[in-house]
Amino acid sequence: MEKREIQAKEILNDIRSGMDYSDLMTKYKLTLRGLDSAFQKLLAAGLISEKELNSRKPGFGETVDLSGLFHVGEQGTGQIQQRKKKEYSYSGIVEGIDILDYIQWVLLDGRRTVLEISFPNGTSCKVYLKEGQILHATNGKREGEEALYSSVMFPRGKFVHLSWNEPDRKTIDKPGMHVLLEASRRRDEADS
User: Fold this and answer.
1) What residue spans define the domains of the chain?
2) What is the Cα Rg of the chain in Å?
3) E strand intervals along the chain
4) I want to staple 147 with a disulfide (CB 3.0 to 4.6 A). Which of 120, 139, 171, 180 is the partner?
5) pTM over 0.90
6) Residue 156: partners with Cβ closer than 8 Å, 6 or more residues away
């Protein structure tokens, strides 16, 4: 795979202009792990401080174009009729995907789902994802961010989507992308 070169000055200008994480990932064609790597390199080179990176607001400030979701037409009586766009839904087994990348995709897609992640040791984690936010996570007796962080340390596992139900409490208040970046950072520290 060809290495991508990013000009430090350009990405620094974008960071300092307030560009959010998903815009940075889109512009530079980066995954969450790639963005974290870019941040780490900027920090190591002394081009940006940890304080400056942490002061950013990584939330979902994006707007979504829903114009194609509904077909709007007028009936003879002047009433507007809405017809939902046909949904396509497939299921299957996905091999070789990093769970952090998958959760990132679910967040960007804005789904409302409970993701159950099972591990080879017989334990599992449930992650409640709703409209670009991680609301709650459980892993045994652990809850919240720590439950999610401990779960992504496993090198392999399986996941399945469960029917949506509101969690009994909200244990994660940080923006979803912030939580995933911290999970990626912790995993990198553990691997080194």
Assistant:
1) 8-54, 94-191
2) 19
3) 70-74, 80-84, 112-118, 124-130, 133-139, 142-143, 158-162
4) 139
5) no
6) 119, 120
How confident is the model over 169-173, as a mean pLDDT? 95
pLDDT at 71: 45
Higher pLDDT, 36 or 176: 176
Query: Are 14 and 42 within 8 A, CB to CB?
Result: no
Taking a C-beta distance cutoff of 8 angstroms, is the pair 128, 136 a contact?
A: yes
d(C-alpha 53, C-alpha 50), whole Å: 5
Residues 6+ apart with CB under 8 A from 118: 124, 157, 158, 159, 160
Window from 49-53, 97-101, 116-120, 175-179 with minimum mean pLDDT:
49-53
Euclidean distance between CA atoms 162 and 4, whole angstroms: 37
Residue 191 DSSP SS3: helix
pLDDT in tens, 107-151: 988 889 999 999 999 999 999 999 999 999 999 999 999 999 999
